[in-house]
Write a structure and sequence with these properties.
With 180 residues, the chain is α/β, with parallel strands linked by helices. The protein is built from seven helices and six strands; from the N terminus they run E-H-E-H-H-H-E-H-E-H-E-E-H.
Length: 180
């Protein structure tokens, strides 16, 4: 799985793997060794849009003014505090993602994570101007107990994302034609 690096600021932003994937866990350890943070999410806490917002706000310590909707989630993922990122970056690991695969909000949830990560992993704003902060590595890993690469890819594919299939993984990032 050499095409994915969750320790740096390059795509893909979301990665879908079998539970316990050795390479992903090696990279998570490497991120933490560099000072980054790994945050864990239980899929049971992500079964609705409201639950996603609550879980992410609590785990990633979003500010009190967080609007608890998809757009606000993108904004907060783009602007995480140093305490949450270690000043280096984060990886959010979603355990038992099988529960989410058929959820109505799953494709939008993946797109929102990609949007937030795309912005966080950049040192420039949406207009191309330099930000007053460095790019922060931000990636999300969905771990599946029963990983079916083709089924996951079908559920993730949508016009605003570029989906990559590799041996033992599926990955997604924003489609440049749709977003940049």
């Amino acid at each position: 799985m050499t095409v994915i690096d969750i320790t740096g600021t390059s795509e893909p932003w979301t990665i879908f793997v079998p539970q316990g994937d050795v390479e992903i866990h090696r990279q998570l350890s490497k991120l933490e060794a560099r000072g980054g943070r790994v945050h864990h999410f239980d899929s049971r806490d992500l079964l609705t849009e409201e639950a996603v917002c609550r879980s992410f706000a609590d785990t990633l310590r979003f500010p009190g003014y967080f609007g608890r909707n998809w757009d606000a989630l993108v904004d907060c993922l783009d602007d995480l505090c140093g305490e949450v990122t270690g000043g280096v970056g984060i990886a959010g690991v979603i355990h038992d993602a099988d529960r989410l695969l058929d959820a109505e909000h799953f494709p939008l949830f993946v797109s929102v994570l990609c949007q937030g990560a795309d912005r966080a992993n950049s040192a420039v704003d949406l207009d191309g101007f330099a930000l007053d902060r460095p790019a922060i590595a931000e990636h999300f890993v969905f771990e599946f107990s029963a990983f079916d690469r083709e089924r996951v890819a079908q559920q993730v594919e949508q016009p605003d994302l570029t989906v990559t299939r590799g041996e033992g993984f599926v990955a997604a990032a924003l489609c440049p034609e749709a977003w940049h």
